[in-house]
Amino acid sequence: NLLNTPFDKTLFLDTDVYLLDEIPELFEILDSFDLATAIDPNELELRYDRDRAFKEIPESFPLFQTGVISYNSNKTMSEFVKKWRTLHMNNDVRSDQSSFRAALYESEINHMTLSNLYNCLIGWPMQVTGEIKIVHDSDHINHIDDLKPIVDRMNRTDEPRVFFTPRGSLHAPLWPRGNKV
């Protein structure tokens, strides 16, 4: 459906994404770039799918989140989306992010990396500096009313900060007792 947009500039959002502020800058950057996404800070699909598909891509090429995509409607983007879809359908991958990564690696598209402020994953360890504009997480927000106290705590300061919503074990190699949480 990315190619069915009636607009010259489009912002695609997953259904579990919440806008916290106005974000005209995600449209303004499309004057210089065709596509913008944030790096997946945890790269779970990259580590999971790396040995099953797209082995030729260097491990140093990151995995990107596909829950927030700012893009232009043009021929370059259309070709990119078609390549992404073909790679996804023709390879053994469990996530669209792995095939997105492969399409990006093979493409000439003018891509820009967004800050974590524009795709802040509530359920994963994150480091941010500045005001979070977009949060993303289906596991921890059951109702929109649950979001306000979380965001208020997250945006209490715009100083550098780290937060983590436990999903299991916390591994803190610099703090030996941290692994017991």
What labels describe this entry?
alpha/beta, three-stranded mixed beta sheet, four-stranded mixed beta sheet, 181 residues, 26% helix
Rg over CA atoms:
17 Å
- Gross geometry: globular
The pLDDT mean sits at 86
- Number of distinct helices: 5
Largest sheet: number of strands, sense, barrel closure: 4 strands, mixed
Order of helices and strands: EEHEHEHHEEEEHE
Strand order of the largest sheet: 1-4-3-5
Binned, the helix content reads 25-40%
* DSSP strand tally: 9
Give me the secondary-structure category.
alpha/beta
Beta percentage is 15-25%
Q: Could you tell me how far the N terminus lies from the C terminus, measured between alpha carbons in angstroms?
A: 42 Å
Question: How is this structure best described in words?
Answer:
This protein is of the alpha/beta class and 181 residues long. The protein is 26% helix and 18% strand. The chain has helices at residues 25-28, 44-49, 75-89, 96-106, 144-154, and strands spanning 9-13, 17-19, 35-38, 68-72, 111-114, 120-121, 126-128, 134-136, 161-163. The longest helix has 15 residues, at 75-89.
